[in-house]
Amino acid sequence: MKAIALTRYLPISHPESLFDTTIDKPAAAGSDLLVAIKAIAVNPVDTKVRAPKDTVEETPRVLGWDAAGIVEAVGPDVTRFKPGDRVFYAGDITRPGTNAEFHLVDERIVGRLPDSISFETAAALPLTAITAWEALFDRLRVPTPPHAMPRKSILIIGGAGGVGSIAVQLAARIAGLEVVATASRPESIAWVRELGAHHVIDHFGDMPAQLAAIGFPAVDYVLILNDTDRHLPAATSVVAPQGSICTIVENKHALDVSPLKSKSAAFVWEFMFTRSMYKTDDMIEQGRLLEEVARLLESGQLKATGTEVISPINAANLREAHARLEAGHVIGKLVLKDF
């Protein structure tokens, strides 16, 4: 089968950073689905895993996690799906990725895809939707249905990116929070407002001062979606007593969370691969979560976040997508479709 892979970890400008190849088609066993891939999307995790390092792979390594496609075959222990079903999912970082014609995935982390949603629309959603959902409702413990008035507030740092594009919508439309999102360019400001942000500030500026200027001396929740090292001091400053901060981005330096003690405020992490990596008892919650996201999309309560579709799925186009993501100016999600 066709696949895009790497053996060396190189700058994305290098033609061998990702290359077209042919590998054996896998077979479904246990609780796995074999999925014929129709569309994929790129995420920061793809570029981070591919980033230059000295490691050399003995056999081609296939990356990629977001995918949508059709079930080709099922393992003997599968109970939720059958061949021909349309599905979407974010995969498992401990297993080969989705940048291939066929892919194996545990049925518990897979969502059923309604006929009304295209593969390319669906491929943009899984990783970011799971991350945003888990960050808001599992880690920050934002209540649903919403609290009685006055409604609580959230600062979403990095509102125009892939996760931010879902988080803003879930926070505003599903959780009923007063949403302050950060964005720095006219087009990204317009995007987060379209998604439901009530206020927009610039994460390159003095965020506590900007928040105070629009009437938020403190916010109940802070969700950090880029550069934890840079943004945590502002987050600890503005989070309200008994509030919570969640980040999805690894830190490079020691983090000072001591300002949170007097506030009895929480600091938590979200990593959407935790359930599949550790085979937690509640893995199936990701499949259920994705099906709820599909329902919300079908009903018009959520807006699709794929902003551009590139075709076909090949190494040249995937390298272009990685390069654009690394440049840091992508709004929403980049999707590739059709081998």
Automatic annotation (TrEMBL):
- Has the keyword Zinc been applied to this entry? yes
Q: Sorted alphabetically, which InterPro entries does this protein's record hold? A: ADH-like_N, ADH_Zn_typ-1, ER, GroES-like_sf, NAD(P)-bd_dom_sf, Zinc-ADH_QOR/CCCR
Q: Which SUPFAM superfamilies match?
A: GroES-like, NAD(P)-binding Rossmann-fold domains
Q: Which SMART domains match?
A: PKS_ER
Enoyl reductase (ER) domain ranges (all copies): 13-336
Pfam families hit by this protein: ADH_N, ADH_zinc_N_2
Alphabetically ordered keywords of this record: Metal-binding, NADP, Oxidoreductase, Zinc
List the Gene3D superfamilies hit by this protein, alphabetically.
Answer: Medium-chain alcohol dehydrogenases, catalytic domain, NAD(P)-binding Rossmann-like Domain
The entry's family comment says: Belongs to the zinc-containing alcohol dehydrogenase family. Quinone oxidoreductase subfamily.
| NCBIfam families, per the entry | adh_fam_1
Q: Would you tell me the protein name for this molecule?
A: Zinc-type alcohol dehydrogenase-like protein
